[in-house]
Amino acid sequence: MNKADIYKIRDDFPILSREVFGNPLVYLDNAATTQKPQCVIDKITKMYCLENANVHRGVHFLSQAATDEHEASRRTVQKFINAASSNEIVFTRGATESINLVASSFCRKFCKEGDEILITAMEHHSNIVPWQMQCDYYGLKLKVAPINADGELLTDELSRMITPRTRLVSVTHVSNVLGTINPVDKIVKLSHAQNVPVLIDAAQSVQHCRVDVQQLDCDFLVFSSHKIYGPTGVGVLYGKERWLNDLPPYQGGGEMIESVSFDKTTFNSLPFKFEAGTPDFVGTAALAAALDYLTLIGIDKIAAYEHELLQYATEKLLSIPGLRIIGNAGEKSSVISFLVDGIHPYDIGTLLDKMGIAVRTGHHCAEPLMHELGIEGTVRASFAFYNTKEEADKLVKGVERIVKMFRNVKR
Ligand SMILES: Cc1ncc(COP(=O)(O)O)c(C=O)c1O
Protein backbone atom coordinates (compact mmCIF):
# COMPACT_ATOMS: atom_id res chain seq x y z
CA MET A 1 0.00 0.00 0.00
CA ASN A 2 1.32 3.43 -0.85
CA LYS A 3 1.08 6.69 1.10
CA ALA A 4 -2.10 7.77 -0.72
CA ASP A 5 -3.79 4.44 0.11
CA ILE A 6 -2.98 4.85 3.80
CA TYR A 7 -4.25 8.44 3.95
CA LYS A 8 -7.46 7.29 2.24
CA ILE A 9 -7.80 4.49 4.80
CA ARG A 10 -7.25 6.96 7.65
CA ASP A 11 -10.31 8.90 6.48
CA ASP A 12 -12.39 5.81 7.32
CA PHE A 13 -11.47 6.16 11.02
CA PRO A 14 -13.10 9.29 12.48
CA ILE A 15 -11.07 9.27 15.72
CA LEU A 16 -7.78 9.58 13.83
CA SER A 17 -8.53 13.17 12.92
CA ARG A 18 -8.93 14.35 16.52
CA GLU A 19 -6.34 16.22 18.54
CA VAL A 20 -4.93 15.41 21.97
CA PHE A 21 -3.39 18.23 24.02
CA GLY A 22 -3.40 20.42 20.92
CA ASN A 23 -1.53 17.87 18.79
CA PRO A 24 -2.87 15.55 16.11
CA LEU A 25 -3.48 12.17 17.73
CA VAL A 26 -0.78 9.59 17.02
CA TYR A 27 -2.40 6.36 18.13
CA LEU A 28 0.21 3.67 18.75
CA ASP A 29 -1.65 1.54 21.29
CA ASN A 30 -3.25 -0.82 18.80
CA ALA A 31 -2.24 -3.98 20.65
CA ALA A 32 -4.46 -2.80 23.52
CA THR A 33 -7.38 -1.96 21.27
CA THR A 34 -7.87 -0.80 17.71
CA GLN A 35 -9.86 2.17 16.42
CA LYS A 36 -13.12 1.62 14.57
CA PRO A 37 -13.84 2.42 10.93
CA GLN A 38 -17.02 4.32 10.04
CA CYS A 39 -18.62 1.16 8.60
CA VAL A 40 -18.45 -0.51 12.04
CA ILE A 41 -19.91 2.56 13.76
CA ASP A 42 -22.63 2.76 11.07
CA LYS A 43 -23.50 -0.92 11.53
CA ILE A 44 -24.05 -0.41 15.27
CA THR A 45 -26.27 2.61 14.58
CA LYS A 46 -28.21 0.73 11.90
CA MET A 47 -28.80 -2.26 14.16
CA TYR A 48 -30.21 -0.09 16.98
CA CYS A 49 -32.18 2.14 14.60
CA LEU A 50 -33.65 -0.58 12.38
CA GLU A 51 -33.14 -4.13 13.57
CA ASN A 52 -33.10 -4.21 17.36
CA ALA A 53 -34.90 -7.31 18.65
CA ASN A 54 -33.76 -10.36 20.59
CA VAL A 55 -32.36 -13.16 18.47
CA HIS A 56 -33.46 -16.81 18.20
CA ARG A 57 -36.61 -16.05 20.20
CA GLY A 58 -39.30 -14.25 18.27
CA VAL A 59 -41.47 -15.07 15.30
CA HIS A 60 -41.80 -11.40 14.44
CA PHE A 61 -40.07 -9.63 11.58
CA LEU A 62 -37.48 -7.73 13.62
CA SER A 63 -36.41 -10.76 15.62
CA GLN A 64 -35.98 -12.70 12.40
CA ALA A 65 -33.95 -9.88 10.85
CA ALA A 66 -31.66 -9.65 13.90
CA THR A 67 -31.28 -13.45 13.98
CA ASP A 68 -30.42 -13.56 10.27
CA GLU A 69 -27.81 -10.83 10.76
CA HIS A 70 -26.30 -12.58 13.80
CA GLU A 71 -26.03 -15.93 11.99
CA ALA A 72 -24.66 -14.25 8.86
CA SER A 73 -21.98 -12.70 11.10
CA ARG A 74 -21.06 -16.16 12.34
CA ARG A 75 -20.57 -17.26 8.72
CA THR A 76 -18.43 -14.17 8.06
CA VAL A 77 -16.16 -15.15 10.97
CA GLN A 78 -16.12 -18.75 9.72
CA LYS A 79 -14.97 -17.59 6.30
CA PHE A 80 -12.43 -15.14 7.72
CA ILE A 81 -10.54 -17.89 9.57
CA ASN A 82 -11.58 -20.63 7.13
CA ALA A 83 -13.35 -22.85 9.65
CA ALA A 84 -14.97 -25.96 8.18
CA SER A 85 -18.40 -25.13 9.62
CA SER A 86 -20.19 -22.22 11.28
CA ASN A 87 -20.99 -24.66 14.12
CA GLU A 88 -17.34 -24.28 15.06
CA ILE A 89 -17.69 -20.55 15.74
CA VAL A 90 -18.80 -19.68 19.28
CA PHE A 91 -19.39 -16.05 20.18
CA THR A 92 -18.10 -14.98 23.59
CA ARG A 93 -17.32 -11.66 25.29
CA GLY A 94 -13.65 -11.70 24.29
CA ALA A 95 -10.48 -13.76 23.93
CA THR A 96 -10.31 -13.94 27.73
CA GLU A 97 -13.74 -15.49 28.03
CA SER A 98 -12.98 -17.87 25.15
CA ILE A 99 -9.91 -19.20 26.97
CA ASN A 100 -11.82 -19.44 30.25
CA LEU A 101 -14.51 -21.42 28.43
CA VAL A 102 -12.04 -23.97 27.05
CA ALA A 103 -10.03 -24.15 30.30
CA SER A 104 -13.15 -24.75 32.37
CA SER A 105 -14.93 -27.23 30.07
CA PHE A 106 -11.81 -29.06 28.88
CA CYS A 107 -10.32 -29.61 32.33
CA ARG A 108 -13.70 -30.70 33.75
CA LYS A 109 -14.02 -33.36 31.06
CA PHE A 110 -10.48 -34.48 30.35
CA CYS A 111 -8.14 -33.70 33.27
CA LYS A 112 -7.43 -35.40 36.54
CA GLU A 113 -4.89 -34.94 39.33
CA GLY A 114 -1.31 -35.02 38.09
CA ASP A 115 -2.18 -34.12 34.49
CA GLU A 116 -0.33 -31.26 32.83
CA ILE A 117 -1.18 -28.15 30.82
CA LEU A 118 1.68 -26.64 28.82
CA ILE A 119 1.91 -22.90 28.08
CA THR A 120 4.84 -20.61 27.23
CA ALA A 121 6.81 -17.93 29.06
CA MET A 122 5.40 -15.17 26.83
CA GLU A 123 1.68 -15.61 27.56
CA HIS A 124 -0.74 -12.82 28.41
CA HIS A 125 -2.39 -13.21 31.84
CA SER A 126 -5.49 -14.37 29.93
CA ASN A 127 -3.64 -17.49 28.86
CA ILE A 128 -2.11 -18.15 32.26
CA VAL A 129 -4.65 -17.44 35.00
CA PRO A 130 -7.60 -19.48 33.60
CA TRP A 131 -5.32 -22.55 33.47
CA GLN A 132 -3.86 -21.82 36.91
CA MET A 133 -7.38 -21.72 38.34
CA GLN A 134 -8.16 -25.14 36.84
CA CYS A 135 -4.78 -26.48 38.02
CA ASP A 136 -5.59 -25.39 41.58
CA TYR A 137 -9.04 -26.98 41.41
CA TYR A 138 -8.11 -30.33 39.83
CA GLY A 139 -4.52 -30.70 41.09
CA LEU A 140 -2.96 -30.26 37.65
CA LYS A 141 0.53 -29.02 36.86
CA LEU A 142 1.08 -25.88 34.77
CA LYS A 143 4.29 -26.20 32.78
CA VAL A 144 5.96 -23.28 31.02
CA ALA A 145 8.07 -23.59 27.87
CA PRO A 146 11.04 -21.18 27.87
CA ILE A 147 12.13 -18.43 25.48
CA ASN A 148 15.59 -17.24 24.43
CA ALA A 149 17.16 -13.79 24.92
CA ASP A 150 15.62 -12.49 21.67
CA GLY A 151 12.16 -13.45 22.88
CA GLU A 152 11.80 -16.51 20.65
CA LEU A 153 10.05 -19.62 21.87
CA LEU A 154 12.31 -22.66 22.27
CA THR A 155 10.08 -25.05 20.35
CA ASP A 156 12.39 -28.06 20.75
CA GLU A 157 12.24 -27.50 24.48
CA LEU A 158 8.46 -27.20 24.30
CA SER A 159 8.33 -30.50 22.43
CA ARG A 160 10.50 -32.18 25.07
CA MET A 161 8.24 -30.86 27.84
CA ILE A 162 5.24 -32.77 26.45
CA THR A 163 4.74 -35.95 28.49
CA PRO A 164 2.09 -38.68 28.54
CA ARG A 165 0.36 -36.55 31.21
CA THR A 166 0.12 -33.44 28.99
CA ARG A 167 -3.53 -32.82 28.18
CA LEU A 168 -3.31 -29.55 26.22
CA VAL A 169 -0.82 -27.02 24.83
CA SER A 170 -2.01 -23.40 24.93
CA VAL A 171 0.17 -20.90 23.15
CA THR A 172 -0.03 -17.36 21.86
CA HIS A 173 0.36 -16.85 18.11
CA VAL A 174 1.88 -13.39 18.58
CA SER A 175 3.27 -11.97 21.83
CA ASN A 176 1.57 -8.73 22.86
CA VAL A 177 4.83 -7.57 24.48
CA LEU A 178 7.64 -8.86 22.26
CA GLY A 179 5.82 -9.01 18.95
CA THR A 180 7.26 -12.51 18.45
CA ILE A 181 5.34 -14.57 15.90
CA ASN A 182 5.39 -18.13 17.16
CA PRO A 183 5.62 -21.02 14.66
CA VAL A 184 2.15 -22.25 15.59
CA ASP A 185 1.93 -24.61 12.60
CA LYS A 186 5.05 -26.40 13.86
CA ILE A 187 3.74 -26.39 17.46
CA VAL A 188 0.45 -27.97 16.33
CA LYS A 189 2.31 -30.66 14.37
CA LEU A 190 4.69 -31.60 17.17
CA SER A 191 1.87 -31.60 19.76
CA HIS A 192 -0.43 -33.68 17.58
CA ALA A 193 2.44 -36.13 17.01
CA GLN A 194 2.18 -36.75 20.74
CA ASN A 195 -1.66 -36.77 20.68
CA VAL A 196 -1.99 -33.45 22.48
CA PRO A 197 -4.52 -30.83 21.31
CA VAL A 198 -3.52 -27.17 20.88
CA LEU A 199 -5.24 -23.89 21.67
CA ILE A 200 -3.93 -20.84 19.82
CA ASP A 201 -4.41 -17.41 21.37
CA ALA A 202 -4.78 -15.32 18.21
CA ALA A 203 -5.72 -12.09 20.03
CA GLN A 204 -2.64 -10.39 18.53
CA SER A 205 -2.46 -12.16 15.17
CA VAL A 206 -5.79 -12.28 13.28
CA GLN A 207 -5.65 -8.52 12.67
CA HIS A 208 -2.12 -8.70 11.26
CA CYS A 209 -1.84 -11.82 9.13
CA ARG A 210 -3.87 -14.52 7.41
CA VAL A 211 -5.04 -17.17 9.86
CA ASP A 212 -6.47 -20.38 8.42
CA VAL A 213 -7.60 -22.78 11.13
CA GLN A 214 -7.91 -25.74 8.76
CA GLN A 215 -4.41 -25.22 7.45
CA LEU A 216 -3.05 -24.78 10.99
CA ASP A 217 -5.07 -27.80 12.09
CA CYS A 218 -5.34 -26.25 15.59
CA ASP A 219 -8.00 -27.61 17.92
CA PHE A 220 -9.06 -24.26 19.41
CA LEU A 221 -8.34 -20.66 18.48
CA VAL A 222 -9.51 -17.48 20.20
CA PHE A 223 -9.57 -13.77 19.44
CA SER A 224 -11.25 -10.50 20.47
CA SER A 225 -13.35 -8.30 18.22
CA HIS A 226 -12.05 -5.02 19.65
CA LYS A 227 -8.47 -5.79 18.61
CA ILE A 228 -9.52 -6.37 15.01
CA TYR A 229 -11.34 -3.07 14.44
CA GLY A 230 -14.68 -4.41 15.74
CA PRO A 231 -16.59 -3.36 18.84
CA THR A 232 -15.74 -4.24 22.45
CA GLY A 233 -17.61 -6.99 24.28
CA VAL A 234 -17.45 -9.65 21.56
CA GLY A 235 -15.01 -12.51 21.22
CA VAL A 236 -14.64 -15.63 19.15
CA LEU A 237 -13.87 -19.19 20.09
CA TYR A 238 -13.12 -21.52 17.21
CA GLY A 239 -13.14 -25.19 18.15
CA LYS A 240 -13.06 -28.28 15.98
CA GLU A 241 -16.59 -29.67 15.93
CA ARG A 242 -15.40 -32.94 17.43
CA TRP A 243 -13.97 -31.16 20.47
CA LEU A 244 -16.90 -28.80 20.93
CA ASN A 245 -19.32 -31.75 20.79
CA ASP A 246 -17.27 -33.51 23.47
CA LEU A 247 -16.94 -30.58 25.87
CA PRO A 248 -19.59 -29.89 28.51
CA PRO A 249 -21.32 -26.46 28.47
CA TYR A 250 -19.55 -23.58 30.18
CA GLN A 251 -22.44 -21.45 31.46
CA GLY A 252 -26.10 -22.33 31.88
CA GLY A 253 -29.13 -20.26 30.93
CA GLY A 254 -31.36 -19.43 27.98
CA GLU A 255 -30.29 -20.22 24.38
CA MET A 256 -27.95 -23.07 25.38
CA ILE A 257 -30.73 -25.53 26.18
CA GLU A 258 -32.88 -27.91 24.16
CA SER A 259 -35.39 -28.59 26.93
CA VAL A 260 -35.53 -27.84 30.64
CA SER A 261 -37.44 -29.45 33.48
CA PHE A 262 -36.74 -29.26 37.21
CA ASP A 263 -35.34 -32.79 36.98
CA LYS A 264 -33.16 -32.53 33.90
CA THR A 265 -31.93 -30.23 31.17
CA THR A 266 -30.79 -31.29 27.74
CA PHE A 267 -28.46 -29.00 25.86
CA ASN A 268 -28.74 -27.28 22.51
CA SER A 269 -26.68 -28.24 19.47
CA LEU A 270 -23.50 -26.43 18.44
CA PRO A 271 -22.64 -23.64 18.66
CA PHE A 272 -25.55 -22.58 20.90
CA LYS A 273 -24.57 -25.05 23.65
CA PHE A 274 -21.84 -22.58 24.58
CA GLU A 275 -23.81 -19.37 24.19
CA ALA A 276 -25.90 -18.95 27.34
CA GLY A 277 -28.08 -15.83 27.46
CA THR A 278 -28.73 -13.11 24.92
CA PRO A 279 -25.66 -12.71 22.74
CA ASP A 280 -24.31 -9.29 21.75
CA PHE A 281 -25.94 -9.54 18.33
CA VAL A 282 -25.26 -5.87 17.61
CA GLY A 283 -21.61 -6.47 18.40
CA THR A 284 -21.37 -9.59 16.23
CA ALA A 285 -22.91 -7.70 13.28
CA ALA A 286 -20.38 -4.90 13.77
CA LEU A 287 -17.52 -7.43 14.03
CA ALA A 288 -18.64 -8.89 10.70
CA ALA A 289 -18.58 -5.36 9.22
CA ALA A 290 -14.98 -4.98 10.46
CA LEU A 291 -13.94 -8.32 8.95
CA ASP A 292 -15.59 -7.43 5.62
CA TYR A 293 -13.72 -4.12 5.68
CA LEU A 294 -10.37 -5.86 6.26
CA THR A 295 -11.11 -8.43 3.58
CA LEU A 296 -11.82 -5.63 1.12
CA ILE A 297 -8.46 -4.00 1.84
CA GLY A 298 -6.72 -7.39 1.84
CA ILE A 299 -5.09 -8.96 4.89
CA ASP A 300 -1.92 -9.80 2.95
CA LYS A 301 -1.53 -6.16 1.90
CA ILE A 302 -2.04 -5.14 5.52
CA ALA A 303 0.60 -7.62 6.69
CA ALA A 304 3.13 -6.37 4.14
CA TYR A 305 2.58 -2.69 4.97
CA GLU A 306 2.73 -3.27 8.74
CA HIS A 307 6.01 -5.15 8.28
CA GLU A 308 7.39 -2.15 6.39
CA LEU A 309 6.29 0.13 9.26
CA LEU A 310 7.87 -2.21 11.82
CA GLN A 311 11.22 -2.19 10.04
CA TYR A 312 11.14 1.58 9.54
CA ALA A 313 10.26 2.38 13.15
CA THR A 314 12.70 -0.21 14.55
CA GLU A 315 15.62 1.23 12.61
CA LYS A 316 14.80 4.83 13.59
CA LEU A 317 14.26 4.02 17.26
CA LEU A 318 17.54 2.11 17.46
CA SER A 319 19.38 5.27 16.39
CA ILE A 320 18.49 6.83 19.75
CA PRO A 321 21.44 6.40 22.15
CA GLY A 322 20.53 4.32 25.22
CA LEU A 323 17.39 2.86 23.66
CA ARG A 324 17.05 -0.89 23.57
CA ILE A 325 14.28 -2.95 22.07
CA ILE A 326 12.84 -5.78 24.13
CA GLY A 327 11.95 -8.58 21.74
CA ASN A 328 14.15 -9.13 18.71
CA ALA A 329 12.69 -12.29 17.24
CA GLY A 330 13.39 -13.11 13.60
CA GLU A 331 9.64 -13.21 12.93
CA LYS A 332 7.92 -10.18 14.44
CA SER A 333 4.57 -8.47 14.31
CA SER A 334 4.27 -4.65 14.41
CA VAL A 335 4.81 -4.33 18.17
CA ILE A 336 7.88 -2.54 19.53
CA SER A 337 8.62 -2.69 23.25
CA PHE A 338 11.54 -0.59 24.37
CA LEU A 339 13.44 0.86 27.31
CA VAL A 340 15.69 3.89 27.51
CA ASP A 341 18.61 3.88 29.96
CA GLY A 342 17.87 5.89 33.08
CA ILE A 343 14.29 6.86 32.16
CA HIS A 344 11.29 5.08 33.62
CA PRO A 345 8.83 3.78 30.98
CA TYR A 346 5.99 5.55 32.79
CA ASP A 347 7.75 8.92 32.38
CA ILE A 348 8.26 8.28 28.66
CA GLY A 349 4.61 7.29 28.21
CA THR A 350 3.33 10.30 30.14
CA LEU A 351 5.49 12.79 28.24
CA LEU A 352 4.66 11.24 24.85
CA ASP A 353 0.99 11.56 25.77
CA LYS A 354 1.44 15.32 26.20
CA MET A 355 2.66 15.37 22.58
CA GLY A 356 -0.49 13.54 21.47
CA ILE A 357 1.29 10.19 21.10
CA ALA A 358 -0.55 7.26 22.71
CA VAL A 359 1.65 4.34 23.73
CA ARG A 360 1.27 1.75 26.47
CA THR A 361 3.60 1.45 29.46
CA GLY A 362 3.89 -1.20 32.16
CA HIS A 363 3.86 -4.98 32.24
CA HIS A 364 1.21 -5.32 29.50
CA CYS A 365 -0.66 -8.06 31.41
CA ALA A 366 2.40 -10.30 31.16
CA GLU A 367 3.99 -10.05 34.62
CA PRO A 368 5.62 -13.51 34.48
CA LEU A 369 7.32 -12.53 31.20
CA MET A 370 8.62 -9.34 32.83
CA HIS A 371 10.11 -11.45 35.66
CA GLU A 372 11.65 -13.75 33.08
CA LEU A 373 13.24 -10.76 31.32
CA GLY A 374 14.33 -9.19 34.62
CA ILE A 375 12.49 -5.93 33.96
CA GLU A 376 9.48 -4.19 35.50
CA GLY A 377 7.87 -3.01 32.30
CA THR A 378 8.42 -1.42 28.91
CA VAL A 379 7.12 1.32 26.67
CA ARG A 380 5.14 -0.35 23.89
CA ALA A 381 4.36 1.20 20.53
CA SER A 382 2.05 -1.04 18.53
CA PHE A 383 1.25 -0.18 14.94
CA ALA A 384 -1.85 -0.74 12.81
CA PHE A 385 -2.23 -0.40 9.05
CA TYR A 386 -3.65 3.12 9.45
CA ASN A 387 -0.40 4.32 11.03
CA THR A 388 2.11 6.17 8.88
CA LYS A 389 5.87 6.54 8.65
CA GLU A 390 5.33 10.21 9.58
CA GLU A 391 3.77 9.01 12.82
CA ALA A 392 6.74 6.70 13.45
CA ASP A 393 8.96 9.80 12.94
CA LYS A 394 6.90 11.70 15.51
CA LEU A 395 7.39 8.88 18.00
CA VAL A 396 11.13 8.90 17.42
CA LYS A 397 11.35 12.71 17.70
CA GLY A 398 9.21 12.56 20.84
CA VAL A 399 11.50 10.03 22.50
CA GLU A 400 14.57 12.04 21.43
CA ARG A 401 13.08 15.16 23.06
CA ILE A 402 12.40 13.23 26.26
CA VAL A 403 15.95 11.83 26.32
CA LYS A 404 17.35 15.37 25.91
CA MET A 405 15.11 16.69 28.69
CA PHE A 406 16.24 13.99 31.09
CA ARG A 407 19.93 14.38 30.18
CA ASN A 408 19.69 18.16 30.78
CA VAL A 409 18.00 17.67 34.17
CA LYS A 410 20.68 15.19 35.23
CA ARG A 411 23.54 17.53 34.28
C1 LIG B 1 -2.08 -12.14 23.52
C2 LIG B 1 -3.35 -11.73 24.19
N1 LIG B 1 -4.20 -12.66 24.61
C3 LIG B 1 -5.37 -12.35 25.19
C4 LIG B 1 -5.72 -11.05 25.43
C5 LIG B 1 -7.02 -10.75 26.10
O1 LIG B 1 -7.89 -10.07 25.27
P1 LIG B 1 -9.24 -9.47 25.84
O2 LIG B 1 -8.86 -8.58 26.98
O3 LIG B 1 -9.82 -8.73 24.69
O4 LIG B 1 -10.09 -10.61 26.28
C6 LIG B 1 -4.86 -10.03 25.02
C7 LIG B 1 -5.17 -8.62 25.28
O5 LIG B 1 -4.33 -7.76 25.30
C8 LIG B 1 -3.65 -10.38 24.38
O6 LIG B 1 -2.78 -9.45 23.98
What would you say this structure looks like, in words?
A hairpin with a 2-residue loop joins β1 and β2. The chain is built from 14 helices and 17 strands. By secondary structure, it is of the alpha/beta class. Helix content is 41%, strand content 17%. The longest helix is centred in the C-terminal third of the chain and has 22 residues, at 389-410. It has two domains: 3-30 and 298-410, Aspartate Aminotransferase, domain 1 (Alpha-Beta Complex); 41-296, 3-Layer(aba) Sandwich (Aspartate Aminotransferase, domain 2), CATH 3.40.640. It is globular, with a radius of gyration of 22 Å. Pyridoxal-5'-phosphate binds at residues 94-96, 124, 126-127, 172, 176, 201, 203-204, 224, 365.
Measured as a percent range, the helix fraction is: 40-55%
**CATH homologous superfamily designation of the largest domain:** Type I PLP-dependent aspartate aminotransferase-like (Major domain)
For this structure, the CATH topology of the largest domain is Aspartate Aminotransferase, domain 2
Q: How many β-strands, per DSSP?
A: 17
Bound molecules: pyridoxal-5'-phosphate
CATH structural architecture of the largest domain = 3-Layer(aba) Sandwich
Strand content: 15-25%
Question: Largest beta sheet, briefly?
Answer: 7 strands, mixed
Radius of gyration: 22 Å
Q: List low-confidence stretches.
A: none
Arithmetic mean of pLDDT: 97
Distance between the termini: 45 Å
Q: Please work out how many helical segments DSSP would assign.
A: 14
